[in-house]
Amino acid sequence: MTSAVPTPRPSHATAAQADAEPETRARRGGRRSIAAALLLGAVGAALALLASRQAWAHGTVSVAGGDLPLTATGSDVTGVPAALAIVGLAGLVAVFAVRRAGRLLVSLLLALSGAGTVAAALLGAGDSGALDEKAAEASGDAAATIGDLSHTGWPYAAAAAGALILAAGLLALTYGRSWPAMSGRYERDGAPRPRKAAPAVDPDRPEDLWKALDRGEDPTRET
Predict the structure, then answer these.
(1) Which residues of 64-88 are buried (b: 16+ CB within 10 A; e: fewer)?
(2) Cβ–Cβ contacts within 10 Å for residue 187, how many?
(3) Are 159 and 39 spatial neighbours (Cβ–Cβ below 8 Å)?
(4) How crowded is residue 193: how many other Cβ atoms within 10 Å of its Cβ?
(5) Integer Cα distance of 119 and 156 in angstroms
(6) CA–CA separation, 5 vs 7, rounded Å?
(7) Chain centre distance of CA 150
(8) DSSP-derived 3-state class of residue 70
(9) 128-173, pLDDT tens digit by residue?
């Protein structure tokens, strides 16, 4: 015996909710990746700039009065981490101003900035060239070299900063296509904009006459 009760069908509201759930998850994932990239990139760039100003190596050089202590900062050893940190910051901002292929290129530049910062910091971690130059200058002997050489942990802090910038670039490469771009209302298409009509001047109101004079208009002219 066949039942006369019709089979229930999913309502339009239920179907719409099912379609909206993946979209909502995608939006949440996009927001999280944007927040993570901005945080990682900003912290990484700030740390790289800070590390570049700190002492990376210490040593002494023999002079007439005894041993002279010398210090080499990160910028003395290499200027690459600081320069690439600035490039990374610019790329982090520019990634939201471009679309499609432009966004891919900027994201790649951001990742390369991080990788370059890591490489430069690790290469400079054991460098003595900057202190040797200072030793030669301080002693007046071009053949003088630094003695009692020691290094700090700041080069590795700069390398960690580069890793953060690299992570931000990888996030941009992976999720950047779904990130929003700057609103089109801020973009100029080169077309002339219509001028707003000047407000009517009431000759019986002195404040209107003064405003017209401020605009360079003749309030007595007939319109």
Answers:
(1) eeeeeebebbbbbbbebbbbbbebb
(2) 9
(3) no
(4) 6
(5) 10
(6) 7
(7) 33
(8) strand
(9) 888 989 888 888 888 788 888 899 999 999 999 999 999 999 999 9
